[in-house]
Amino acid sequence: MLRARLAEIQQRLQQGMAAVDTHHRLVGRPVIYRVIAGQTFEIEFKEVPSIDESEVMGVKRLIGEKCFCRVSPQTAENLTVRFVVPLTGR
C-alpha cells in the first residue's frame, strides 16, 4: 500500500511538473526521493536557481497530500527545495 502511494506521487510529479514549472526551475534538476524512518517521504530538488510561491503551490497540488516545503541554500547560486510528505495518515 505504501509503495503504491509513493509511486502514485512520483507519477503525478513526472506527468504534471512541466505544467506547474513554466520557468523550468525544477524540471530537469537532480531530484532525490526517499523515505525517512518509515514516517515521511522526502522529495528533494537540487541545483535550483530560484523558486517562487506559485511553483511551490503547484508542486504541492501535484503531490496531492498534506506536505511541507523547505527552501535552503545549496551554494551561493543554487537552492535545495525539499518537499516533505508525512506518511502517518492522509
Give a verbal description of the structure.
With 90 residues, the protein is of the alpha+beta class. It has two helices and four strands. Helix 1 (2-20) runs antiparallel to helix 2 (53-63). A four-stranded antiparallel beta sheet has the order 1-2-4-3, with helices on one face. The protein has a single domain, classed as Heat Shock Protein 90. The radius of gyration is 13 Å and the shape is globular. 33% of the residues lie in helices and 32% in strands.
How are the SSEs ordered, and which strands pair?
Layout: H1 2-20, E1 31-36, E2 40-48, H2 53-63, E3 68-73, E4 79-86
Antiparallel strand pairs: 1-2, 2-4, 3-4
Helix pairs in contact: 1-2
Key words describing this protein structure:
4-stranded antiparallel sheet; 2 helices; globular; alpha+beta; 90 residues
Briefly summarize what is shown.
The chain contains two helices and four strands; from the N terminus they run αββαββ. It has 90 residues and is an alpha+beta fold. The chain has a four-stranded antiparallel sheet with strand order 1-2-4-3, with helices on one face.
- How can the largest sheet be summarized? 4 strands, antiparallel
**Could you give the order of the helices and strands?**
HEEHEE
Mean pLDDT: 93
Q: What CATH first level would be assigned?
A: Alpha Beta
